[in-house]
Each structure stands twice: as structure tokens, then as C-alpha cells.
Amino acid sequence: MREPGAISLEAIEQASDRIRPFAIRTPLLPLQGVGPHEIYLKLENLQPIGSFKVRGAANALADVPRELLKQGVWTASAGNMAQGVGWVAKQLQVPFSAVIPDHAPWAKRGAIERLSGTIHSVPFEEWWQLLMQGAANPRPGHFVHPVCDADVIAGNGTIGLEILEDLPDVDRVLVPFGGGGLISGIASALRGKESSAHVVACEVETAAPLRAALESGEPTWVNYTASFVDGIGGRSILPAMEPLVRSHVAQSLVVSLRQVADSIRHLALQQGVIAEGAGAASVAAAGANPIPGKTVCVVSGGNLESSILREILLGRTPGIG
């Protein structure tokens, strides 16, 4: 694992070549029926595992010696990074395992098992400490940190390259904010290409550590409430990511659970797009904060429990009613 620092355009361009056997180039499509401005969807929910995480996982494992890979690979993940690592590990024919928080959705657990992964479910606090400590945790095999790894971030940055190829004059890119690896990668690509687009984080009200950090000027501990928006949010910004995130991101838009549910419903019924809570957070933020110009919403994933989707399609907000 390479510690996160400044992510060069060269590293992101190299990642674009490395990940090609494992990840697809996702489309950029117009969003219909939300306000008067141009809004586009970067559909990472169409990746083989239903999430952008396959990009970072593929790049992180690209240069690991084969002999080391044979000992197995593992990650700590609420579900999507585990699937990303699992997808790549399966193609490479090496064993993998995932440490997940005990509230991780059953749909994501099942996906890990279908990839022949071994699951270690632990209390959220223990899982969060693992994210904070990284590879210092004594477990066998090669560890892929879901966020704090320069190769993972560079892999994520390939999304930014694709956005600029399809929409060179983009004005604003809205990115769901979990640990900061996705937004840092995309912002690094845009900056490397000298784009003037603003990159804005999107958080949910049940856990918005970036907004707290931006307001206080330092990583700040916040309350975390588990919800159907399980792919973003945490206790605080990871200290290893704070300098990189702060160098790229100056604004966080916080949305409610109801706004996210409304956006999931709109995407499903009007666009035929299935987005999970984290993936729809960017769309919710675009709808609640309209501005002139061309906006891209990164739909980071689509791994949503069928029972949650059914409840939302019936007009309810899971956990609220």
C-alpha cells in the first residue's frame, strides 16, 4: 500500500491502462426531469460489481508480485470495495477475504460470498479502527485499504478522465463522499488536465464528517447513524486523507435521507437507473442546490437491497416512513 499524497496525472493515466481488463468505461447520460439546468449521470453502477470500487481495486493489485498474491488479499469494506477486490482476485485466481461492519447490507454480503470471499463481520467501532490503522492490523495476506492508498485513488481518478473526454466543458462535478478516495482521485484528474470544473462533495445528514471538518478547520468527530445510505459517512475524516481532501475540496453539500430516497425513486422510475443510497446522494445534492452550467453527478454504485428499493418505490423513506 502506498500512502496517499499528491496524485499525478501520469499515475491516473497509467491506471487507465491497468484497469482495462477488469473495469468498463461507463457512460455519461443526461438526467431527465430535475430542474432547468444541464445535469449528467456518470453511471458507475454499471461496473461489473455495481460500483466504482473495481477501478481502485484493480489498480492497487496490478503491480503486486504474484507470489505475494498467492497468500491472499483482503480489505476492510462496507461491501463495495470488498466486491471490487473480490472481482479482481477471482480473475487472478487468488483467495480473498473482507472485514465488514456488522450493519453491512445482506445484499452486499451475498455478493461477497458469490465471489468466493471469506467474510469477517465485526462491530462498527472495530471496523472503523481498522480503517484508521490500515495495514497495521495483523492479518495474513496483502491488504488493500479502501481509501488510503495512492494506487486506489489513482484508479478512482480514471473517472475524471472519462468525464472530461465526454464533457470537456463541465462546470461542476458532484461526488459522494465516504472516505475521500473517490473525490480526491477525480479532482486530481481534473486538476491534472487543467479543468476549471468545481469538484463538490456530497454527504448525508446521518454522517457528514467533511462538512464538520471544513467548518472547524480540522478533522472533527461527528455522530454516525447507520441508515440505508451505507456506502458513505463515518465518524470523521481519516487523518491520512485529510491533507489531500482539503487540497481539492472546499465545499460539502449535505442532503437528507428523504432527499436521497426521492432521488433513488426518480432515477429508477424516470431513468431506469438503480442507484444505492450513496450513489444517489450526488443527484439529491444537484436537485437541492441547482446552479447554471453543466453538472455531472457521479452515481458511485447501485448495490441496493431489493427490500429497500421496494419501500422507496412505494413512496417511503426507509427508517423514516
Describe this entry's structure for a reader.
Helix 2 (53-61) crosses helix 4 (80-92) and helix 7 crosses helix 8. The model has no long low-confidence stretch (mean pLDDT 91). Strand 1 and strand 2 (38-43) form a beta hairpin. With 321 residues, the chain is an alpha/beta fold. The chain has helices spanning 9-18, 53-61, 66-69, 80-92, 106-114, 124-133, 150-166, 181-192, 209-216, 242-248, 257-271, 277-288, 306-313; strands at residues 28-30, 38-43, 73-76, 96-101, 118-122, 142-144, 172-176, 198-204, 252-255, 294-299. Helix content is 42%, strand content 15%. The protein has 2 domains: 9-51 and 150-313, Rossmann fold (3-Layer(aba) Sandwich); 55-144, Rossmann fold, CATH 3.40.50. The chain has a 6-stranded mixed sheet, sandwiched between helices. A 4-stranded parallel sheet has the order 5-4-3-6, sandwiched between helices. It is built from 13 helices and 10 strands.
Task: Determine and state the CATH class of the largest domain.
Answer: Alpha Beta
Strand order of the largest sheet: 1-2-10-7-8-9
Helix and strand run? HEEHHEHEHEHEHEHEHHEHHEH
Beta strands, count = 10
Q: Low-confidence segments, ≥5 residues, pLDDT <50?
A: none
* Domain tally: 2
Label the CATH architecture of the largest domain.
Answer: 3-Layer(aba) Sandwich
Number of helices: 13
Give the overall shape: globular
- Please give the largest β-sheet: 6 strands, mixed
CATH fold naming of the largest domain: Rossmann fold
Spatial separation of the terminal alpha carbons:
43 Å
Beta-strand share of residues: 15-25%
